[in-house]
Every structure is written in structure tokens, then in C-alpha cells.
């Protein structure tokens, strides 16, 4: 394989590597190390379907099952991130499946609504927008770097705070989505994660950890101040110094580390253009730890 850096802070592009083949153990080790150090990989010119994507994703852990059956592509482990149905129909912008995609234009990290949030997401571009279209890129923001550059007073303010993450609360932001069933709600009750995340596998480095696709406030303070702080965080992490924007080409396969990156899709004309992608998500196996978590306090 050939590897080149995409930016100084994170991201690499890999060519001459076929993700549909059986991956050797030394290659898996290299890719895991690259994810740990660079957080984002783009594999160019791949040929995959849902089954092959699932097979490749399992090299890095167990696959998550998506909460809603009608939002998946063939199997519960492969999410249809598209404005196109499984039968190839270009969906209306008012279709609930497209409304959910529009919510992805808010900064988020996948599966933050789980007690053990996902580690990696792996997204394959089956149909991408033409060059003349506006939007459709996927943008990433580096939360390790964002924390490093925080003013000291903001670090102190954020240390004890948390955010509630709830899959059901997407309906607060997108009221056009139908209510979840009782079973869906009970399978994914709200969870609370610290806004400052500590990473034991990175020598206790800290990063920001929050989202904009389930709620627009930070807990641990008044609702008014929590909303103001959330707005400040969104503006802060949107600075170009923290971000990389991926301009899609058909058959790109991108993989990123949800533990240290936020991402969002840049809005586009959903009624004019087709955009079809499928995603596999690697289960996390550790909770989000903050500065005051017992596991972290015991190491200091």
C-alpha cells in the first residue's frame, strides 16, 4: 500500500490497497496504529457491497446494530447513509430517512447515545455528488487539538461538566421524525458523558467530547448558560485550524476514530442530487472517562 498525509494534524490517504481482500494480521496492526496516531484514513478506489463492508469492519471489532430497522441497508449492522432507498429511489427531502441525514449536518460523534460509544466508523461512497454541486463533503474536527488550544479558564469551566446523549432526543431537533417504539427507546436510554474526555490509551491525554445532533446544551449548569456554552463550543471547534474536509470521490472508503474526532456532512441540495453511502460501525468497549472518573483519579 502507498500512504500519504492529508494534513499535519490528522488524516492519511491509502492507495493500492484492496479492502475487499482478506486483511493480513500485520496489515490490521498497521491500520490500527495509523488510526491511533492519525485518526482518519481514506482508502481510494474500493469495490464493496454491504457484506464486504461488514467483513472489512469486523477486522477492527464487533459491528454495532443500528437502533431502527428501516434506516438500514439490508442488514442491521450496515447503515444506509443516503437520500436513496435500498431499491434505488431518490427520496423526497421530507422523507424521514432524509431528515435523519440532514441532522448529520450538525457536529457529532457516532453512537454517543450508547454507554460504550463506538470506536471507529467506516463509510463507503457508492454515489457521490458531481464536482459542480455545492456541499456534500464530510468535515472532521480534531478534539485533541481543540482541547490543547482551549483557554485555561474554559478548561477549568468544562472539567466537571457533562452532556446528556439520547437517541430519542433527535426528535427534539428534528420533529419530522416519527416517535421511536417503546422497544427502541428501552434499548437506548439516555446516557451522560463528560465533556472533557480522558484517554488512558493515549497517556491520559484529554479531548473535548460533545455533540450537536442529540442536544444543544451542556449539563451541570443552568439551562440558559448550558445553551450558551454549547453554542460557544460549536463555533470554537469549527475553526479551520482544527478541521479537515473530505471531498468525496466515488468508491472512497473512509474510516475515522469517533473517540477523538467530531464530524458533520456539509448540506447540499437533497432534492437535486443523489448521495448514497453505507456505513459499518465498530462497537466501543470502554465508557467515556472524565477528569473525575474513579478510573482516572486512581491513576493520578
Quick recap:
This protein is of the alpha+beta class. 24% of the residues lie in helices and 24% in strands.
What would you say this structure looks like, in words?
- The longest helix is centred in the last third of the chain and has 15 residues, at 223-237.
- This protein has one domain (2-297): Clavaminate synthase-like (Double-stranded beta-helix, 4-Layer Sandwich), CATH 3.60.130.
- The chain has helices at 25-38, 50-57, 96-103, 143-148, 152-158, 170-173, 182-187, 223-237, 294-297; strands at 2-5, 12-15, 40-43, 72-73, 75-82, 120-127, 138-142, 162-165, 191-194, 196-199, 205-208, 243-246, 253-257, 261-265, 276-281.
- The strands form 4 sheets. The chain has an 8-stranded mixed β-sheet, with helices on both faces. A 3-stranded antiparallel β-sheet has the order 12-7-14.
- α1 links the parallel β2 and β3 (40-43).
- Helix content is 24%, strand content 24%.
- 37% of the residues are buried.
- It starts with a strand and ends with a helix.
- With 300 residues, the chain is α+β, with helices and mostly antiparallel strands.
CATH class: Alpha Beta
Helix residue percentage: 10-25%
Query: What Rg is obtained from the alpha carbons, in whole angstroms?
Result: 19 Å
CATH topology: Double-stranded beta-helix
CATH architecture: 4-Layer Sandwich
SS element count, helices? 9
Estimate nothing, just give the exact number of structural domains.
1
Largest sheet: 8 strands, mixed
**Structural class per helix/strand content?**
alpha+beta
The count of DSSP E runs of length 2 or more, i.e. the number of strands, is 15
Instruction: Indicate the low-confidence ranges by residue numbers.
Output: none
The strand line-up of the biggest sheet is: 1-2-3-13-6-15-5-4
Amino acid at each position: 500500500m502507498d500512504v500519504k498525509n492529508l494534513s499535519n494534524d490528522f488524516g492519511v490517504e491509502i492507495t493500492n490497497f484492496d479492502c475487499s481482500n482478506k486483511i493480513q494480521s500485520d496489515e490490521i496492526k498497521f491500520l490500527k496504529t495509523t488510526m491511533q496516531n492519525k485518526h482518519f484514513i481514506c482508502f481510494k478506489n474500493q469495490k464493496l457491497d454491504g457484506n464486504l463492508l461488514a467483513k472489512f469492519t469486523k477486522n477492527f471489532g464487533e459491528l454495532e446494530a443500528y437502533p431502527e430497522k428501516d434506516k438500514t441497508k439490508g442488514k442491521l449492522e450496515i447503515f444506509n447513509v443516503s437520500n436513496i432507498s435500498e431499491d434505488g429511489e431518490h427520496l423526497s427531502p421530507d422523507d424521514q430517512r432524509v431528515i435523519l441525514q440532514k441532522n448529520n449536518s450538525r457536529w457529532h460523534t457516532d453512537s454517543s447515545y450508547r454507554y460504550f460509544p463506538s470506536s471507529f466508523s467506516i463509510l463507503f461512497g457508492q454515489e457521490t455528488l458531481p464536482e459542480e454541486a455545492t456541499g456534500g463533503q464530510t468535515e472532521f474536527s480534531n478534539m485533541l487539538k481543540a482541547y490543547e488550544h482551549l483557554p485555561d479558564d474554559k478548561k477549568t469551566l468544562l472539567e466537571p461538566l457533562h452532556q446528556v446523549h439520547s437517541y430519542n432526543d433527535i426528535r427534539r431537533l428534528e420533529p419530522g421524525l416519527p416517535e421511536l417504539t417503546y422497544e427502541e427507546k428501552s434499548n437506548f436510554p439516555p446516557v451522560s458523558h463528560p465533556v472533557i474526555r480522558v484517554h488512558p490509551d493515549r497517556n491520559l491525554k484529554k479531548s473535548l467530547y460533545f455533540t450537536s445532533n442529540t442536544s444543544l446544551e451542556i449539563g451541570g449548569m443552568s439551562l440558559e448558560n448550558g445553551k450558551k456554552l454549547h453554542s460557544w463550543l460549536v463555533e470554537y471547534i469549527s475553526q479551520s485550524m482544527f478541521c479537515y474536509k473530505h471531498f468525496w470521490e466515488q468508491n472512497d472508503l473512509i474510516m475515522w476514530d469517533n473517540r477523538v474526532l467530531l464530524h458533520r456532512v456539509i448540506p447540499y441540495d437533497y432534492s437535486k442530487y443523489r448521495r448514497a453511502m453505507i456505513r459499518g460501525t465498530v462497537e466501543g468497549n470502554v465508557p467515556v472517562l472524565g477528569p473525575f472518573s474513579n478510573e482516572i483519579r486512581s491513576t493520578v
